[in-house]
Amino acid sequence: MAEACCDIQCFYSNNAYLIKELALTSLDGSIVEHYIFRAPFPFHDLDLKDQQTNAYLTRNKHCLNWYAGVVNYSQLPLILERIGREYAILYTKGKQKQDCLQNYVSRACLVVDLESRNCPSLLDLSVYPAARCYMNHPSCALTNCVRMREWMDADLNKGVGSLSISTSRSPDCAFETRSVNHPVYNNELFSREHGR
Ligand SMILES: [Zn+2]
């Protein structure tokens, strides 16, 4: 079954990720998806701390405005449910993104954190060519996806080894291990740069 790289750029609400931008590239490069979602509610409905955090993200990190986007937020779970049916494995970067995506997709789709597999910082992946979305902003999810895929491709071509991925995620789930021809990566800690 197919595998893909997936990245999200988010705001925060009540200590939870609120997905603003979602991008996906299949590992074979044949499929690219990209969405920027409309605001789920008015900015002033956020508590003051979340308003400050999200304003910081807009000014200094992903630079996406709270009100940017054209896809209704109500479509987000439907899109991710469908992606979860279409892909056996989604590769992303960061434990929180991994957890956020895994909450949306079915248990049949495994979300893998590339940070635990020695994937360098996204800044260090800038050596790879990438696309960017129409918003032309920093930390674009589409750019990140393409670079993650390019990195996996490059290491795969080096013949570094293979990564065994367990698709078991809970004690009551039948254990299954699949061998995927990607490198064995080391742990790398992810830090939320905005300090929350
Ligand atoms: Zn973008």
TrEMBL record:
It comes from the Eukaryota. This is Uncharacterized protein. It comes from Bemisia tabaci.
